[in-house]
TrEMBL record, chains A, B:
<dbReference type="InterPro" id="IPR019818">
    <property type="entry name" value="IsoCit/isopropylmalate_DH_CS"/>
</dbReference>
<keyword id="KW-0560">Oxidoreductase</keyword>
<dbReference type="InterPro" id="IPR024084">
    <property type="entry name" value="IsoPropMal-DH-like_dom"/>
</dbReference>
<keyword id="KW-0963">Cytoplasm</keyword>
<keyword id="KW-0479">Metal-binding</keyword>
<keyword id="KW-0028">Amino-acid biosynthesis</keyword>
<dbReference type="GO" id="GO:0051287">
    <property type="term" value="F:NAD binding"/>
</dbReference>
<dbReference type="GO" id="GO:0005737">
    <property type="term" value="C:cytoplasm"/>
</dbReference>
<dbReference type="InterPro" id="IPR004429">
    <property type="entry name" value="Isopropylmalate_DH"/>
</dbReference>
<keyword id="KW-0460">Magnesium</keyword>
<dbReference type="GO" id="GO:0000287">
    <property type="term" value="F:magnesium ion binding"/>
</dbReference>
<keyword id="KW-0432">Leucine biosynthesis</keyword>
<feature type="domain" description="Isopropylmalate dehydrogenase-like">
    <location>
        <begin position="1"/>
        <end position="330"/>
    </location>
</feature>
<dbReference type="GO" id="GO:0009098">
    <property type="term" value="P:L-leucine biosynthetic process"/>
</dbReference>
<dbReference type="GO" id="GO:0003862">
    <property type="term" value="F:3-isopropylmalate dehydrogenase activity"/>
</dbReference>
<protein>
    <recommendedName>
        <fullName>3-isopropylmalate dehydrogenase</fullName>
        <ecNumber>1.1.1.85</ecNumber>
    </recommendedName>
</protein>
<comment type="pathway">
    <text>Amino-acid biosynthesis; L-leucine biosynthesis; L-leucine from 3-methyl-2-oxobutanoate: step 3/4.</text>
</comment>
């Protein structure tokens, strides 16, 4: 557990480093040690690294790195996951979409993070009346769970372009029917936000057909897992994308959306900008330090404008750098 | 109930037309009349039109057109939904993907269609221990349900390029863990097929990043609903895409993947080619008439080569035609 303290922009930072996921499995045998959760809860905000790797891939469920992440989300009660998918003009060519389709895409996916099929009970294995093995999970939402994530999404949309699209499968699932009913019921509290609804299969299509139609999307845990990854890949530069997970009380959790990329571990190739931009989200949503957040974001843009690129976003006419140098260039750009 | 009989290519066809979905609601008050299901079961194959429309959008669940479709799938036991997403060289410009990414994409999504969260019990509405409204559904798969869809997928992959990617969320869901275990267990029966596994969120990304990496995809009902729509939109021409739903015994169900497009109903604008190509799938998978299927597919390609396009796939230098004329041009191209 490292500890560090410094001042910057008039803010005093104190850092503690604690293990979760693979690192915690190696040092303590569990993916979320009690000390880690306690330290996280005592903090004002948490910056999280990526959590998996080949080494633990075959572990049983309760010993998977992912389980530690899910326990941390649940333990902190961070029910709202904010995942921006923004195409920066500097990186529009990284997208596999045609330039005219990708240019200007700026979507925020608000994903419910502590409910639904990820946590619903009953779940597990069993056998059916023919004696066959079965595996089962429960998709369940309570009115208050839907209301609180919808409120966050309405607030987010209000601060953006005022458009909120709620995604569900209300033509088939009861959990989605309740979702649609509750979200619709809240709309009158946000008269300045234009609410629409879309089925998840259609949303998966529309994100590709015309992503610019979307401003803010709100959806459940599993649909959000899928759609936020789809939306981020539209940008062609997921090594650039941060995320914020916040709750009602207590600290928020901030992390890059990319995984741990075990294939390039230790090679000084990873793009650090998603983590840097996660720190910006931490300042904005976790600590209310908007100015400091903007300074970091401006430094990242400046670094890109100066032509520096890691391998994942490299294209002709720019300067290829490693993870370490990219970090240094950002510092130089502040 | 219309009835029609004619001979073509040495095959005798007898047609019966029966209502389902919106049409059935209007004429009988239910979305799947008993007579319709009985007629479907007596047939050798079923060609289905699209089933929804604004008029019935606000109906209660048991009176939704979609419910009729789900009842028909379940009633016929068509557990395997085959959905090709093919980019035709003639239409590569219709895709919102860059030409070099879209060109040559040829994916078959094999979706489980009669199980999982669409049909799992318990489901419904209730209240939790705090007296709040809840909505819930059950994602459940039995070993035999997974095995039979996996076998279909292995067979399909074997006749294609020999690559099968099974998509699940086995890092979180027990239903997916059993899915992965069963699919893996069958691999040794198909040594000529190369099996891989992918998480659904990653699959949603990879379809955009590099769709050509996929040959055949097999996945559960809800993930298949989302991913097959995503895959089809990659082609930019979903008005072109057919689908087949087949079971172990009894007739298969063949339908375009697009919806009823109520916004252009009655305007002679719809693209009929997905329905025409569904008839080709009906001949191939429903009746084993490969030659006749190929003739229809060749006629469609020929029609495109002659430059005819409906509005949804129109681009400069081609001839814009309506639904009716497009059908006539296909007949002329046989
Ligand atoms: C690692 C996994 C459990 C996690 C999730 O499914 O939530 C990840 O995909 C994410 O989106 O953060
Ligand atoms: C209409 C709806 C019930 C249906 C589904 O979800 O299966 C449709 O989206 C499809 O993919 O055929």
């Amino acid at each position: 557990m490292a500890s560090l303290c410094f001042f910057s922009a008039g803010i005093e930072f104190r850092f503690r480093e604690v293990p979760v996921g693979g690192a915690a499995l190696d040092s303590t045998g569990v993916p979320l040690p009690d000390d880690t959760l306690a330290a996280a809860k005592e903090s004002d905000a948490i910056l999280l690294g990526a959590i998996g790797g080949y080494k633990w891939d075959a572990n049983e469920k309760h010993l998977k790195p992912e389980t530690g992440l899910l326990q941390l989300r649940a333990g902190l009660g961070v029910f709202a996951n904010l995942r921006p998918a923004t195409v920066l003009p500097q990186l529009v060519d990284s997208s596999t979409l045609k330039k005219e389709v990708a240019d200007g895409v700026d979507i925020m996916v608000v994903r419910e993070l502590t409910g639904g099929i990820y946590f619903g009970k009953p779940r597990g294995f069993g056998s059916n009346d023919r004696g066959e093995d079965i595996g089962f999970n429960t998709e369940v939402y309570a009115a208050s769970e839907i209301d609180r994530i919808a409120r966050v999404a309405f607030e987010v949309a209000r601060k953006r372009r005022g458009k909120l699209c709620s995604v569900d499968k209300a033509n088939v699932l009861e959990a989605s029917m309740l979702w649609r009913k509750r979200v619709t019921g809240l709309a009158s509290e946000f008269p300045d936000v234009e609410l629409s609804h879309m089925y998840v299969d259609n949303a998966a299509m529309q994100l590709i057909r015309n992503p610019k139609q979307f401003d803010t999307i709100v959806t459940n845990n599993i649909f959000g897992d899928i759609l936020s990854d789809e939306a981020s890949m539209l940008t062609g530069s997921i090594g650039m994308l941060p995320s914020a997970s916040i709750g009602d009380l207590g600290p928020g959790l901030f992390e890059p959306i990319h995984g741990s990329a075990p294939d390039i571990a230790g090679q000084d190739k990873a793009n650090p900008l998603a983590t840097v931009l996660s720190a910006a989200m931490l300042l904005r949503y976790g600590l209310g330090e908007e100015e400091a957040a903007k300074r970091i974001e401006a430094a990242v843009i400046n670094t890109l404008n100066r032509g520096f690129r890691t391998g994942d976003i490299f294209s002709g006419g720019t300067t290829l750098v490693g993870c370490k140098q990219m970090g240094e260039e950002v510092l130089r750009s502040v």
